[in-house]
Design a protein that fits this description.
alpha/beta, 12 helices, TIM Barrel, eight-stranded parallel β-barrel
């Protein structure tokens, strides 16, 4: 097992995109700044998608304009096509994340085109990003199951991974978009991927829809994954997948890893405080558990 794991915080994008209301731009900026203050170095700050489909992300350019730029921090913008890529670059993102879906049906529901078209768009964007000196990553959605096609054959996931790898991404992420995966499946998929694409940097994105997200994250660490996605407070999901709620909470993940001897470089107490702030900003409780229970053992200043 790796003794150090990098965390990509996706709350400002994957978390807030599923909120029923639109969070004010100033609150989004404060949220991101708080996350960076806690030690997170890669933050998915927004997405450059059609604002009619995802109105929560309509202020993408304004969010980037409001952020303080800090050395060593990646400000990730999610894009789905060339138009989104151009917007993200113009707004000042220094890392681009794109997504294709292993399921053709889901890709059409989510992006309006088939998987083949999205892969072709990714290869073009990857070339452009490399020429511009911008880090580009790719996520394969529905790698563990699809709400429309059901079980996703591992062979199909590997096939899509081989094709996107032709763009020489910084890393390839495999997403359990609807939260159906289990640890044995995680071990199989990442084991097969390592055989098919030796040396490729791997990342995992889990949802906690069926309460297996943290177990899957730990299984991914054991499988040698270098980076995990999570969302402060456990907010979020996919607005285009039925009942696909709940990313794994960043503070819960940091606690699990820290107590297991795996370093993340994140200040847990600051992160919990950000989760508490987030509840106030959203006007409702968040799904994460450490926001409710706190860490253990308590810092000496909090000890009774």
């Amino acid at each position: 097992m790796s003794r150090s794991i990098e965390i990509v915080e996706v709350g400002p994008r994957d978390g807030l995109q599923s909120e029923p209301g639109v969070v004010p731009t100033a609150a989004k900026v404060e949220f991101i700044e708080r996350l960076i203050d806690s030690g997170l170095k890669r933050v998915e700050v927004t997405s450059f998608v059609n604002p009619k489909k995802v109105p929560q992300m309509a202020d993408a350019e304004q969010v980037l304009a409001g952020l303080r730029r800090r050395e060593g921090v990646s400000y990730i913008g999610l894009v789905l096509n060339r138009k989104g890529y151009d917007r993200a670059v113009a707004a000042g993102c220094n890392e681009i994340g794109m997504a294709v879906v292993a399921s053709d049906t889901f890709n059409r529901r989510n992006q309006g085109v088939g998987t083949d078209e999205s892969v072709a768009a990714w290869l073009e964007i990857a070339r452009e990003a490399k020429a511009a000196g911008i880090r580009a990553t790719i996520t394969i959605g529905a790698s563990f199951g699809c709400p429309f096609e059901g079980e996703m054959p591992v062979g199909r996931v590997i096939e899509v991974a081989r094709r996107v790898a032709e763009g020489s991404p910084y890393e390839i992420a495999f997403a359990d978009t609807i939260g159906v995966g289990v640890p044995a499946q995680v071990a199989e998929i990442f084991g097969r991927v390592r055989e098919a694409l030796p040396g490729v940097r791997l990342r995992a994105h889990f949802h906690n829809t069926r309460n297996t997200g943290l177990a899957n994250a730990y299984a991914a660490v054991e499988a040698g994954v270098a980076t995990l996605d999570s969302s402060c407070g456990g907010i979020g999901g996919c607005p285009f997948a039925p009942a696909a709620t709940g990313n794994i909470p960043t503070e819960d993940l940091v606690y699990l890893l820290s107590r297991s001897g795996v370093a993340t470089g994140v200040d847990l107490e600051r992160l919990i405080a950000t989760g508490e702030w987030l509840q106030q900003a959203l006007g409702r409780p968040v799904p994460g558990m450490l926001v409710k229970a706190g860490s253990f053992p308590k810092p000496s200043s909090q000890a009774a």
